[in-house]
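In response to reviewer comment 3 from the previous cycle, which asked for concrete evidence that the modeling workflow produces usable outputs, we include below a single protein chain processed end to end. The sequence was submitted unchanged, and the resulting structure tokens are shown without manual editing.
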Amino acid sequence: MGKSITETAKPSSTTYEALEEMVRSKVQEYVQEILEEEIEIFLGRKKSERIKAVDVPPGYRNGYGKTKQFTVMNGTINIRRPRIRGTEEKFESKIIPFFKRRSKEVGQLLPELYLHGLAQGDFEMALRGLLGEGAPLSASSIGRLKAKWQIDYEEWKRQDISSLEVVYQWADGIYVKAGLEKDKAALLVIIGGLTNGRKVLLACESGYRESKESWSGVLRNLKMRGLSLGRLTIADGHLGIWSALGELHAQGKEQRCWNHKIRNVLDCFPKRIRAEAAEQLKKIPYAATLVECERLRICLLIDTGRIT
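The workflow returned the following structure tokens.
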């Protein structure tokens, strides 16, 4: 087992919600594939592989047993355990007990490892962090899994998205550290809000310190895939994204992310009243009208002694 998480990314709620479903489904898929690799190594052949009758190792697959559920930090994943028949030795998975023994730690670690793999462009690092030094898989198995995951990710990045009708987009940089390296790895994420109300993950790529060049590369890739950016971009105060948008989407409007803005405002309050101020600040963006928004702002200033 690799080291536990020492620091977690803290993206805005919108970014985190959009990443949750993708990360949960990918973690489930990858853990299932690791289990399937264990079975292939145990039986000495791939699933449905035809073999000659001479020197055939005993044992065969016989469907799947009851689905097992494991809790990760963003939901539940379901793993199907393959049934093995006719073997002299009982199959014992090294992955399944790993979840049972350390479910809380693993539940936090898995999503972070996946994001860390994306950010570093190195899924083997994430896989080694999950399995630890005593990995139950051979080097060739790990190589196959790494190659497959990389291909899946590259195919997702090339998908045609010209049919998406984006009204606005959120852009956020996430710094992930899953205890694997000294430095945190950066992920540049763009979420699109569509005309039908859905939110979709448009981009999730590694980038160096949210630089203008890194964000420009992400935006160019979206345009190459046919996307028409929405009229409004919501992001934090980092200059990299705004500089890139100024060149590649100059006609678009800009808005500061409420999540980051509230954090900045809270830094101006004494610590003793930050909790109370935070509750009131969170109500302001959701006011039904501009008049109500202004009323809540004035009430906050009065309650915290900023004005009398």
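The CA atoms of residues 65 and 81 lie 5 Å apart. We consider this sufficient to address the reviewer's concern, and the full set will be provided in the supplementary archive.
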